[in-house]
Amino acid sequence: MRYKVNLKKTDEGYSIWCPGLPGCWSQGETEKKALENIKDAIQSYLETVDQLSKGTRSRYIEVG
Asked: For residue 64, what pLDDT band results from cuts at 50, 70 and 90?
């Protein structure tokens, strides 16, 4: 899967977030580290969504 992420240079390094996943953000001292960290954040976000959705009737759709 591919997700669009936004980066912002800060005094401490880089802030990074995924606009398609509200509340999914991370940071890193370098751009490379921030990109590595957001991968973990996205994975954790999606795992949490799956856990919260258990027992709920769901469907998958293809977009595009």
From this structure: confident
